[in-house]
Specification:
The structure is a single chain. The protein is of the alpha/beta class. Helices cover 40% and strands 10% of the residues. It has 8 helices and 5 strands; from the N terminus they run H-E-H-E-E-H-E-H-E-H-H-H-H. A 5-stranded parallel sheet has the order 2-1-4-3-5. It is globular. The N and C termini lie far apart (32 Å). The N terminus is likely disordered.
Length: 182
């Protein structure tokens, strides 16, 4: 790693898009990737649903719309939110109407030790990194996952997918890409 954590911390909160993490505190705090992003000032922590900015892209696995590269302008204006919750409680966490613009990520493989190589079982950090890559912000995604020893594996597992998704123009393109890989 060429950059220190201090350097990452000083620059990251000022960068666009702004990254937020809603911490629902349902997991072991020592293993929480969202809490680690907040600790190193790579994301702004939120603790209540009402703190989510209104037009922010909210990464939601149940959203009707998939995240596309064209969402980058909205993300740069308003930011991206990852909801950090336990996978056992995900249905309940996302059943509540949230502010923001919901988007779901296309299928990606997890690299975190708990859900390694499982589809759609991403940590909050992986979800944010995946969203950034799809929107053409791969350097920022790399910096985010540099905090985790398993972070580089995310890019190894998903390199072709992320490259293809970042060139998709429509949800039909994303569906075709997903069908080709899975």
């Amino acid at each position: 790693m060429t950059e220190s954590y201090a350097t990452l911390s000083q620059e990251s909160l000022a960068e666009s898009p702004r990254i937020y993490v809603l911490l629902l505190r349902q997991d072991d705090p020592r293993k929480c990737s969202a809490a680690k992003l907040a600790k190193f000032r790579l994301a702004t922590p939120l603790f209540r649903m009402r703190q989510i900015p209104r037009r922010t892209i909210v990464l939601n696995p149940f959203a009707p719309q998939v995240l596309l590269p064209a969402d980058r302008a909205m993300a740069e204006r308003n930011g991206i939110v990852s909801i950090d919750c336990s996978w056992e409680k995900v249905d309940k966490a996302f059943a509540i109407r949230m502010p923001g613009e919901p988007r779901r990520l296309p299928p990606l493989l997890a690299s975190n030790p708990v859900n390694y190589a499982k589809v759609h079982k991403l940590s909050s950090a992986e979800a944010i990194a995946g969203a950034l890559c799809i929107m053409g912000l791969s350097d920022r995604a790399t910096r985010i996952l540099s905090l985790f020893k398993w972070g580089p594996a995310f890019f190894t597992l998903n390199s072709q997918l992320l490259r293809s998704y970042s060139q998709a123009a429509t949800e039909a393109d994303v569906a075709r890409i997903s069908a080709d890989f899975f």
